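In response to the reviewer comment on reproducibility (Comment 2.3), we provide here a single inverse folding case reported in full, input and output, so that an independent group could reproduce the run without further information from us. The structure tokens appear first.
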């Protein structure tokens, strides 16, 4: 008899701080080396937007589960979530692509 062991993959808790740190680093780098800073900012923004879009269902379920666990939090609003996923993050993607294009144009 073969036993299958399924290990649960732990959630990445410090990833959001890593994105903030990378954004700050590339923003500071833009002052001295604009092409490098803009390409780094654009890459981080594009990657963040794609990750949010790819995990949008998981994020919504996480919001709902957190609300059920902690009754002190506001009830998740599906409209705000959809505006975030279908308007805000695509705009972040466009800004990231524009930053990459600007880096190419000045480099």
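Designed residues, in position order:
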């Amino acid at each position: 008899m073969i036993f299958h062991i399924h290990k649960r993959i732990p959630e990445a808790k410090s990833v959001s701080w890593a994105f903030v740190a990378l954004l700050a680093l590339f923003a500071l780098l833009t002052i001295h080396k604009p092409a490098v800073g803009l390409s780094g900012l654009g890459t981080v923004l594009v990657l963040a937007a794609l990750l949010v879009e790819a995990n949008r269902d998981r994020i919504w379920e996480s919001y709902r589960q957190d609300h059920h666990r902690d009754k002190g939090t506001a009830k998740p609003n599906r409209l705000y979530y959809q505006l975030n996923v279908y308007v805000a993050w695509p705009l972040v993607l466009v800004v990231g692509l524009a930053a990459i294009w600007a880096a190419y144009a000045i480099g």
